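Field reference: sequence -> structure
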Amino acid sequence: MTARMKTTPVTKILGAAALALAAVSSLSAQADPIADFYRGKNFTIIVGYSAGGGYDVYARAIARYINRQIPGNPNVIVTNMPGAGSLASVNYLYNIAPKDGTSMATFGRGIPMEPLIGVGKFQFDATKLNWIGSASTELSVCAVSQKSKAHTYEDMLTTEIAMGGEGGGSDPDTYANLVRALTGAKLKLVTGYPGGNDMALATERGELDGRCGWSWGSVKATRPTWVSGPDALRVLLQMTVERSPEMPNVPTIYEKATSDADKQVVRLIVSRQTMARPFAAPPNVPADRITALRAAFDATMKDKEFLAEANKLKLEIEPVSGAEVQKLMADLYKSSPEVLARAKEVMAAGPAASVAKPKP
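Structure field:
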């Protein structure tokens, strides 16, 4: 009787411990459903442009590090989907891409404005996309090569120059149209190029003088000899509200707008530069996965190895959080009807004066 009384508590304790261990193991197995979901899966980053341009370089650099930060460490794949100035990639992301959190896309920063002021075949609602973040803010310019007849902003008003474009809604087309509408500049928009690298090559060949809406960060990253030296681009106009410290003597499009209404249109259109390298996931992705992807993106932007590579590639990293981009979209879509009407008028005037790029 005594022996049983001594052994029973031990048995109960061991049994309780075993049950507790099983419970802990069960909880551990269920502790991270996000990691369980992503483990062993492919995660696709869609680039809305051809390979070799600024958006592509940023996406591939991020792809090499973000899998460390996504729970479950999925295999990250980058795929290019050029078309209509990256509009094709956004339409795909919104309507066709899986809504499970296994894909995101990067595309022209101006594309989200298309449903507001554009004339393209947009099939998405920018406020319903799940914004993951932006790798940087941006300075965009109108610039030409040393081969161009234009040397200053004033030359654009009297000399026809051929500027490259990608399609409605893209920065090169939007900004060229904005400059023509507000200043009367003699810009010949040659549109239909798949991406920035293609326009850069066309500029080297003399097929184009240059382009507007040219990301100065991309120039630094992909053509550093065009920043300074004998082959340096001539920057004619900054597509900003305020002059950049890098270019104190180059005028801005805001300065050249002559009415208050047009100045408001400029503010509306150039605000996209807040999210210079945007990444977004489709709508209707489970909220916990979007939270995880935003956290992974933010962590990648602070990863020392990523930052070292970005520095080597001359990529400017000034991250903007997904929540900030989401708020920016919501605010832009609250613009007054008067400003939107004038912006649409400006944008609609452009395509009629555009020409298609030469066939290869």
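Note: Confidence is low (pLDDT under 50) at residues 1-7, 23-29.
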